[in-house]
């Protein structure tokens, strides 16, 4: 029998993803691909499957913990010989990605005492070189606890904190903001207590050792904070002069909104600031009452009055799912920042529907969606301004030479938008198969973050439900979205007489900063023409 530590696999680059359910218990027998736990990110809920069959020996996380790729989940006993895959009580051979390397004097363990020792804290394995330092979280003389943030780094792909491997006092800071660092570079000197007595340079050489977490404390599940940490003190306003406890994802979100984290109340353990705290702060600022009546009419958003609905009759409160809350926040942000315009058009899909039904009789099952995706790609190629995004400063367009199309899927937990990648290179049959597969995964909560990223343009189809028109909200940073309503038979004049034709309502919303009205009208016309002539889509 062999004990193996199961870790979080690649979850699409997401960090600090919350565990909302643990599907197994200690002693459970699990089969290969059986679900171990369920994670919920800002965009999706996903299950982590078991890589092989075995028995659960120990669970290293709990509901509410936040994990990233590589974090330990549980210990699995599997059939087969050999030594244990990992022994928690022994130092591992490789440097863990989330623990800094500590350079300390080597000395016999018997000489450990309460004397202090100064250790040089170095950059751990961060997967990149020359990563800029964007924030230094401590000052000389500060006392830091184990796992407190020392510095924040930002690469092309992610923002990451470097935590303190142990408690101590900062004696000297060896870098500054905007310095570029790599693995092994010195960060600061930390004075710690209870370390081994330092050896003299002449008698014993320095050697590198790796700080190893205790066997009883998994790296992904921090012990619960003391009761007093959950008191009102933990939610007090952060003083600008104090260190701010917040993860990389929270800091990135704050930068996107221009929020000073020193002004945000932290509701996490030891006053740690969570994403929800930043979102609550932004909401409070948007809804803050005006200081004086003169502020009205100057662009400020008036607050929505709080009403006690129970005075009118029985009520109940149903909390929104995390997915719906995040979706509402993103829609609100897009509506506030994007000047929306909606262009309406109708496409004659009589021939398309005849062709589609003929294919169905041959055993080829197709919905109208693959045809609409094909038509959108055709229109994006004709009017490339729609296949673009505004740069962060808003003074240039980022033109895209790929065609990834998102389509909205209605699920019990909220709206999800899986993405068809390289839609221009796929046939109608391939598009039909992929849309069915992705929609099923969305409804079963099995979409990965990678399957919902990178869209150039989004389609929101309500045709199977009904309605004649609606105004979809642009999914920023995209600059356009197509709303599709229910097709209906209408009399259409052909120059000689009225003929019954199946007309499909199209609603094209766009970002007026990037798209002018004439180009939007051309895009809608090209789209309607492509749907009206099936030959355009088959070429």
UniProtKB/TrEMBL annotation:
Cofactor note: Binds 2 lipoyl cofactors covalently.
Cellular component, GO annotation: cytoplasm; pyruvate dehydrogenase complex
Highest taxon in the source lineage: Bacteria
GO MF annotation terms: dihydrolipoyllysine-residue acetyltransferase activity; lipoic acid binding
EC number in record: 2.3.1.12
Keyword Acetylation part of the UniProt annotation: no
Sequence ranges assigned to domain Peripheral subunit-binding (PSBD) in this UniProt record: 245-282
Biased composition (Low complexity): 99-116, 195-220
Region (Disordered): 81-116, 192-245
Matching InterPro entries: 2-oxoA_DH_lipoyl-BS, 2-oxoacid_DH_actylTfrase, 2-oxoacid_DH_E2_comp, AcTrfase_Pyrv_DH_cplx, Biotin_lipoyl, CAT-like_dom_sf, E3-bd_dom_sf, PSBD
Cofactor (UniProt): (R)-lipoate
The keyword Transferase belongs to this UniProt entry's keyword annotation: yes
GO-annotated biological processes: pyruvate decarboxylation to acetyl-CoA
Assigned keywords, A-Z: Acyltransferase, Lipoyl, Repeat, Transferase
Lipoyl-binding domain ranges (all copies): 3-77, 118-191
PROSITE patterns per UniProt: BIOTINYL_LIPOYL, LIPOYL, PSBD
Reaction equation(s) it catalyzes: N(6)-[(R)-dihydrolipoyl]-L-lysyl-[protein] + acetyl-CoA = N(6)-[(R)-S(8)-acetyldihydrolipoyl]-L-lysyl-[protein] + CoA
Pfam families to which the protein is assigned, alphabetical: 2-oxoacid_dh, Biotin_lipoyl, E3_binding
Oligomeric form and interacting partners: Forms a 24-polypeptide structural core with octahedral symmetry.
Biological role stated in the UniProt entry: The pyruvate dehydrogenase complex catalyzes the overall conversion of pyruvate to acetyl-CoA and CO(2). It contains multiple copies of three enzymatic components: pyruvate dehydrogenase (E1), dihydrolipoamide acetyltransferase (E2) and lipoamide dehydrogenase (E3).
Family designation: Belongs to the 2-oxoacid dehydrogenase family.
Identification of the protein by name: Acetyltransferase component of pyruvate dehydrogenase complex
Lineage: Bacteria, Pseudomonadati, Pseudomonadota, Gammaproteobacteria, Oceanospirillales
């Amino acid at each position: 029998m062999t004990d193996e530590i199961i870790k979080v696999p690649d979850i699409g680059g997401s960090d600090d993803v919350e565990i909302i359910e643990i599907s197994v218990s200690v002693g459970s027998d699990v089969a290969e691909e059986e679900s171990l736990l369920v994670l919920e990110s800002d965009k999706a809920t996903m299950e982590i499957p078991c890589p092989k069959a075995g028995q659960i020996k120990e669970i290293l996380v709990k509901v509410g913990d936040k994990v990233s790729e590589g974090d330990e989940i549980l210990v699995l006993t599997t059939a087969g010989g050999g030594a244990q895959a990992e022994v928690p009580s022994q130092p591992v051979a490789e440097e863990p990605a989330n623990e800094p390397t500590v350079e300390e004097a080597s000395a016999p363990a018997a000489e450990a005492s309460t004397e202090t020792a100064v250790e040089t804290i170095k950059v751990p394995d961060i997967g990149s070189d020359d990563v800029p330092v964007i924030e230094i979280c401590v000052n000389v003389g500060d006392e830091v606890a184990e796992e407190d943030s020392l510095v924040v780094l930002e690469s092309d792909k992610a923002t990451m904190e470097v935590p303190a491997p142990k408690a101590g006092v900062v004696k000297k800071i060896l870098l500054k903001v905007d310095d570029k660092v790599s693995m092994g570079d010195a960060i600061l000197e930390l004075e710690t207590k209870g370390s081994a007595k330092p050896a003299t340079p002449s008698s014993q050489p320095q050697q590198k050792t790796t700080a190893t977490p205790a066997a009883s404390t998994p790296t992904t599940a921090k012990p619960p904070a003391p009761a007093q940490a959950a008191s009102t003190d933990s939610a007090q306003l952060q003083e600008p002069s104090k260190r701010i406890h917040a993860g990389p994802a929270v800091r990135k979100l704050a930068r996107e909104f221009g929020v000073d984290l020193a002004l945000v109340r932290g509701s996490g353990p030891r006053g740690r600031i969570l994403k929800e705290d930043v979102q609550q702060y932004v909401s409070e600022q948007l809804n803050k009452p005006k200081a004086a009546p003169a502020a009205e009419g100057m662009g400020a958003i008036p607050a929505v009055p709080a009403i006690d609905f129970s005075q009118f009759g029985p009520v109940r409160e149903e909390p929104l799912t995390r997915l719906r809350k995040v979706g509402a926040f993103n829609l609100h942000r897009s509506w506030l920042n994007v000047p929306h315009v909606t262009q309406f058009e109708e496409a004659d899909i009589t021939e398309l529907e005849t062709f589609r039904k003929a294919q169905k009789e041959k055993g080829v099952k197709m919905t109208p969606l693959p045809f609409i995706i094909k038509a959108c790609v055709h229109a994006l190629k004709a009017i490339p301004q729609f296949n673009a995004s505004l740069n962060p400063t808003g003074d240039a367009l980022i033109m895209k030479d790929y065609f990834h199309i998102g389509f909205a899927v209605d699920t019990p937990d909220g709206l999800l938008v899986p993405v068809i990648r390289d839609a221009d290179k796929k046939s109608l049959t391939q598009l039909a198969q992929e849309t069915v597969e992705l929609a099923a995964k969305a409804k079963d909560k099995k979409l990965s973050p990678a399957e919902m990223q990178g869209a150039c343009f989004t389609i929101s189809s309500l045709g199977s439900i009904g309605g004649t028109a609606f105004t979809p909200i642009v999914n920023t940073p995209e600059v356009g979205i197509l709303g599709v309503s229910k097709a209906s038979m209408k009399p259409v004049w052909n120059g000689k007489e009225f003929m019954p034709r199946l007309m499909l309502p199209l609603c094209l919303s766009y970002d007026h900063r990037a798209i002018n009205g004439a180009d939007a009208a051309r895009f809608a016309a090209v789209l309607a023409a492509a749907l009206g002539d099936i030959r355009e889509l088959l070429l």
